[in-house]
Amino acid sequence: MDKQLQTIAALLGSEAPNRRLAAAIVLGELAPSDADVVRALGSALGSADDTLTREIVAALGRTRHKTAFPYLLPMLLNAPPALRDAAGKALAQLKMDIESELEKVWAKAATVQKLALMDVFARLHSDGATRFLLTGLFDPDFEMVKAICGAIRRHISDANEDERKDLFKQISSFVKSPRVKKDMRATTSCLILLGSLGNPAARPLLLDYTGPKQVAFVRRNALQSLANLSREGAGVDTMIKKVLPLLKEEDRENIVSPAIALLAPLEFPAGTVGDLEKLAKSDNAEVRRFAVRKLGHQPGKKVVSAMLDWLGDADQEVRDIAAKALCRIEDATQPLLEKLGKVTTADDAWNIVKLLKPHAERFAKDAKKKLAVRCLDLMEKNDPRVPAYTWLLRNVDAAGFNAQVAEVGEDFRQRKKFAAAVQSLRLLANTEMFNATVRYQLSFSGLKTSPKDLSPGRRGEDPCLRGFTALLRDPSFKLFDCLAKDKKLLEPEDLFYLGFHFAESALGHERQFSQQVFEFLIKTWPKSEQAKAAKNKLKTEGKNEGAS
What is the distance between the alpha carbons of residues 467 and 450, in angstroms, rounded to a whole number? Predict the structure, then answer.
């Protein structure tokens, strides 16, 4: 020991606790492989509190000197759990044939001490230590077998790549030995360990233990271990084809559910479609849902057709799975459009258009046009499916659809299909297409369909009158000229209702418009009852203005 180390080591005997702690920490950082330093650290253990003890134990391990063994072993066997773990970690760092020494202690150790010893063996990652632990899997005490298996699994993450490969080779060889094959506990433990390693090279070996010749418990653990392997590497497709038939078995707990958990995250090859179609007819709801879900990731018209049928399945979960699949499968675009054309209720139409929305980018121009024509045809018939169609068309091509609506809405108006005109032109509200001309067409159509109730309250609620009011505020729009051009579409009651409403306005330009409307009514239909009423209204309003 050099002078500097002597000075630091001397502080381990200081009366000041902080100096003793600092000395242990510094020696641990320096990690000198020196027997004198080890003795100094070991001697300080007798009077150390828990905090100092942990630092001394850590420092002893970092020296890696074999003389630390007699100081650390008692800590491992007799100290409280926290210190025992630190001692185990330190022992695993020593450069010596520690396995032989630990095996000697094992023979006389109590159960609690064996648990601590096996943890050290698991930390070593050496062939000898692994061999010793694997042999322990034959112990008649099941709890001991579980503990050994747990210790190995717990420290797999500590192993480097080469150590993990060696561990894999040892376990793979061990599980094939005649003695292990006769011992279900040892076999199961090995399968669990192979799964914990995650090496995809274990896939063929684990698959051998999933077959019906094995007991259910072993098969379940083999399936669970397969699920823990990396999804990369060869043999995944082969595994899928071998495991799929297991879903036909009756044992849900040991076979079916673990098999589904294994297969669920995997991407299935196209060659499995036939098997999945058969499983989709299973009486087991879990299997059936799984099969439908996996089919939903396969392309093809046949799959799409099946998904469309499952939209009406009695099982809500199957319906939901099918719906999500149809949103995703590219081949579903045209079949969904055809399905939309066949449904007869608003609810069914809504269900289909929601599935079609994700396909919007795949709609051909011709398909968009046909869809719009269909929508407008339904609109003319006041069909309840119209809102679903319009929602879809706006999500597919809003600008194109709005232009068609504007054109068809005016066509409805000219053909005196005023209810259809209102329904279509109303769709343009809050769009760029809703200019003064469209507002006029909508208000005009609304006037034709209005109940024309002259009571102030009813007139105040009439949308068409609100539309005309807005147009009158726009000096650039010649409202009366437009009405005059549409004379063939008007009736006396239309003009009287319109003129009556604005005759009572407080605004001069609105009363002036009312006078124009009444005069136009009187001139066009002079013998009508509305013309007589218009004359009387003009006289009344004229007297009122004169009186005011």
Answer: 13
Residue 544 CB-density burial (10 A; 0-12 exposed, 13-18 middle, 19+ buried): exposed
Q: Is 461 found in the same domain as 416?
A: no
Q: Tell me the mean pLDDT per 10 residues along the chain, length 548.
A: 90 94 95 94 94 96 96 95 94 93 94 95 95 96 96 95 96 97 96 96 96 95 96 88 96 97 94 95 97 95 95 96 96 95 95 95 89 89 93 91 91 94 92 94 97 94 96 96 96 97 92 95 96 91 55
Q: Are 72 and 104 in contact, with CB atoms under 8 Å apart?
A: no
Please name which of 210, 269, 271, 212 lies closest in space to residue 243, comparing C-alpha atoms.
210
Domain boundary among 389, 414, 434: 434
402-406 own/partner pairs: CB under 8 Å, 24+ apart? 402/427, 402/428, 402/431, 402/432, 402/433, 403/433, 404/372, 404/376, 405/376, 405/433, 406/433, 406/438
The reported pTM is 0.74
Together in a domain, 72 and 19: yes
Specify if 144 maps to a domain: no
Q: Which residue has the tokens 């185990």?
A: 88
Q: Which domain holds residue 421?
A: 329-434
Q: Enter the tokens of residue 337.
A: 């459009």
Residue that finishes a domain, picked among 411, 434, 457: 434
**Which residue is it, tokens 């399905």?**
339
Classify burial at 368, counting beta carbons within 10 Å of its beta carbon; exposed 0-12, middle 13-18, buried 19 or more.
Answer: middle
Q: What is the pLDDT of residue 245?
A: 96
CA 93 to CA 126: how far, in whole Å? 12
Exposed/middle/buried for 361, CB within 10 Å: 0-12, 13-18, 19+?
exposed
* 106 vs 113: CA distance, rounded Å: 8
Q: CB-based contacts of 34: which residues, under 8 Å, 6+ apart? A: 1, 5, 63, 65
CA–CA distance, 341 with 388 (Å, rounded to integer): 12
Q: Would 137 be classed as within a structural domain?
A: no
Neighbours of 42 (CB within 10 A): 18
For position 544, what pLDDT does the model report? Answer: 55
Q: Which long-range contacts (CB under 8 A, 24 or more apart) does 540-548 make?
A: 541/503, 541/504, 541/511, 541/514
CA distance 76 to 155: 17
DSSP for 283-337 reads S-HHHHHHHHHHHTTS-SHHHHHHHHHHTT-S-HHHHHHHHHHHHH-GGGHHHHH
pLDDT (0 to 100) of residue 303:
95
What's the DSSP call for residue 177?
S
Q: DSSP secondary structure string, 376-445?
A: HHHHHTT-TTHHHHHHHHHHHHHHHHHHHHHHHHHHHHHTT-HHHHHHHHGGGTTSTT--HHHHHHHHHH
d(CA 503, CA 467): 16
